[in-house]
Specification:
Elements (H helix, E strand, L loop, with lengths): L1 H28 L5 H28 L5 H7 L10 E7 L4 E7 L9 E5 L4 E3 L1
Antiparallel strand pairs: 1-2, 2-3, 3-4
């Protein structure tokens, strides 16, 4: 009786785990129509975090925010060039906004991903 109950519980746990795994796999591919877009968007998220951290470091040293070109030329950040995304920075005296704009053909990909000085990422 104890072994059959243990085996039944194992089957239930494996079933629940399989269900949760399949739900998470669907949410990853929901970023775009194909897995390549999902990987690109994940890379863009990492790029935006790196750019925002570089902006914060630059502000701590210079008391102002910099353009992306200035950050790259100073060696503050090394961001790879992504084929379907372009980056722009909008800076002011008290903040910044970094925008990654999508120009590829995937209709389900986010068109703009934005990171601001509060490290809040929004997707449009």
């Amino acid at each position: 009786m104890g072994r059959s109950f243990g085996f039944l519980m194992l089957l239930i746990v494996v079933g629940v785990g399989g269900y949760l795994y399949s739900r998470q796999a669907q949410s990853v591919t929901a970023i775009g129509s194909n897995p390549i877009t999902a990987v690109e968007v994940s890379g863009v998220h990492n790029d935006l975090i790196a750019l925002a951290n570089a902006e914060r470091r630059y502000f701590a040293l210079n008391s102002k925010y910099a353009s992306i070109e200035e950050l790259r030329s100073n060696g503050d950040v090394l961001i790879p060039i992504r084929e379907n995304f372009s980056y722009t920075a909008q800076t002011s005296d008290n903040g910044f906004k970094i925008v990654a704009a999508y120009s590829g053909s995937d209709p389900k990909a986010p068109k703009r991903i934005i990171m601001d000085q509060s490290m809040m990422m929004t997707t449009e």
